[in-house]
Amino acid sequence: MEVKPLALNGLLEIRPSIFRDDRGYFFEAFNINSFRNAGITTEFVQDNQSFSRKGTIRGLHFQNPPHAQGKLVWVSSGKVLDVVVDIRKNSPDFGRHLCVELDSNDFKILYIPPGFAHGFAALEDSVFQYKCTAVYHKDSEGGINPMDSSLNINWPVSNPVVSEKDNNLPFFTELTSPFAT
Known about the structure:
The protein is mainly β. The protein has helices at 32-37, 164-167; strands spanning 2-5, 12-15, 19-21, 24-26, 46-52, 56-63, 71-77, 79-86, 97-103, 109-112, 116-122, 126-132, 141-143, 161-162. A six-stranded antiparallel beta sheet has the order 1-2-10-7-12-5, with no helix packed on it. Strands 6, 8, 9, 11, 13 and 14 form a six-stranded mixed beta sheet that branches. A two-stranded antiparallel sheet has the order 3-4. The longest helix has 6 residues, at 32-37. The chain starts with a strand and ends in a 14-residue tail after the last helix.
């Protein structure tokens, strides 16, 4: 497993070791010992999976403290543009976003700590999987409208399919972040 810090402090790109043979391939998406050895000591308590049709945008979501979630995300089928926005108000990266393409053919995994809004655009029909460090808590839901032009996110889909709920999320300038650094 190879772990690489990304441009926004706290985000990590993980490349698992892939074992291939005539039958296909095998890799560990998560191994607590390997993650601890790499310095990722958070505990994951919930696994989620979603299917999104090409052109769908989901997010930008987060959970407020004390139910804030860190996430370990990857694509098991298809390809997405994964997007994170730093919403830690004392962070030098506050308001900046980072885009990472996740593809079931390259097996890249992204670790997103609490304090980031998260979303993705399905570039193909995609199965998206993620582990969370806190159990979903409806009353702690938060989000930013993914179509907020002030974030300058270049969503690479035309005529995106966005849920009514996500379209009604507040814009970044309306956000009162509950996250420090």
